[in-house]
Amino acid sequence: MSKSWMPNSRLIGASLCAALAFPALAADKDNAKEVATAAAHAGMAAGAEAPQMVKSHLQHVINCLEGPNGANFAAALGNPCASLGDGAIPDAKEDGRKRLEDIARLAAQAMAEMNTDKAKRMASEIQSELSK
User: Fold this and answer.
1) Which of 9, 102, 103, 121 is 20 to 30 Å from 90 by CA-CA measure?
2) At what angle do helices 31-47 and 51-66 cross, to 10 degrees?
3) How far apart are CA 40 and CA 1, in angstroms?
4) How far apart are CA 80 and CA 76, in angstroms?
5) Whole-model pTM?
């Protein structure tokens, strides 16, 4: 009996690996996960010791909220939400966008803040707002 009717196990394995490695290919955009990831990075910024890590995590907040087409998006620092959608703001329902835009503006202000302790307090406020 010929085995030609049986699926190629390597092909199935490769497809499964691709779906796990690239969840955006396997799932729809997930605004709630984008917001949760942004909140997590705000928390990381609030708890960071090094000023550069505060700034890096705040940029991750902005990248998750605005997405790659956002005015303050910085691809060089990475986008922890890349596989989740186009950004929490573009993926949000219209009635939730203004709130997220306000939070993104606050994150940009925190990025510009020269006093690290103040930037960390702002990051904590951002985390709190995103967790509501």
Assistant:
1) 121
2) 170
3) 55
4) 12
5) 0.79
